[in-house]
Design brief:
single chain, mainly alpha, 2 domains, 4 helices, extended
């Protein structure tokens, strides 16, 4: 396995941007801070609750 170079991640992200990275588009329209209370609450509870919250968030985006 080759070692990761100093600029490999930067170059990879630049390539993704040029290709039209969907995550950049989502980041521009979604206020991620609205999920902070949900995730914070989930992380203070059991692992089962965390999985349930993440599943719920995933479902909302796929709907």
């Amino acid at each position: 396995m080759a070692q990761i170079g100093l600029f490999d991640e930067s170059n990879r992200l630049e390539k993704l941007s040029k290709m039209g990275d969907i995550l950049e588009k989502l980041n521009a329209v979604i206020n991620w801070e609205m999920f902070r209370p949900i995730i914070t609450n989930a992380l203070t509870n059991t692992k089962k609750n965390v999985q349930g919250v993440l599943l719920m968030i995933s479902y909302c985006f796929l709907k």
